[in-house]
Amino acid sequence: MALYDAPLLFGFEQESTENLSFIPLVVRFNLDRFGQRISLEQWRRLPHGDRELLARFPVEDDVAIEPNFDQALAEMLRTHADARPETFTPDGDPIWAHTDVVPETVIRQSSLCGIGSPSLGRWSELSRFQRYALAKLSRKADVNHDFVPAMREFGLAD
Predict the structure, then answer these.
(1) Tens digit of pLDDT for each residue in 34-90?
(2) Helix, strand, coil fractions of the chain, as percent rounded to 5
């Protein structure tokens, strides 16, 4: 398992993560995949180098990632935050993994933002991580300030 050379941040996240003060989508993706949850307070208690390392873990399917991510996160939290990640059973069939349907939440968020939702063809062309990002950004009923920039970055909006 190889780490990315630098934190994997989407362009639209560069400003919103404020130099990793907020949990980037790459970390959220791996937390969700491996059934772990941490608070923003716990994230911010980690040294910047640890946050950067967690943001360098791959988003590809690789069985070697899980124990390394789990162990790294647990050790970092224990050492720097005197905490443990909350665990849960990950969704075995998340909607963002499907290429045969655009999630209702993405359609709703597009409407809230006044833009067209992705066509099924364009949705299916996105990477798993891009689909995850849009689904994550659209999970709440309020407008997400990163949704339109993400749609633009992924070539889905003008």
Answers:
(1) 899 999 999 999 999 999 999 999 888 766 677 788 889 999 999 998 999 999 999
(2) 50, 5, 45
Beta bridge partners of 37: 86
This prediction has a pTM of 0.92
19 — alpha (psi -120 to 50), left (phi > 0) or beta? left
Q: What is the CA radius of gyration of the chain?
A: 16
Contact in structure between 105 and 139 (CB atoms under 8 Å): yes
For residue 87, what are the β-bridge partners? 36
Give the span between the Cα atoms of 32 and 143, in whole angstroms: 22
Q: For tokens 């716990």, what's the residue?
A: 42
Q: Bridge-partner residues for 86, per DSSP?
A: 37
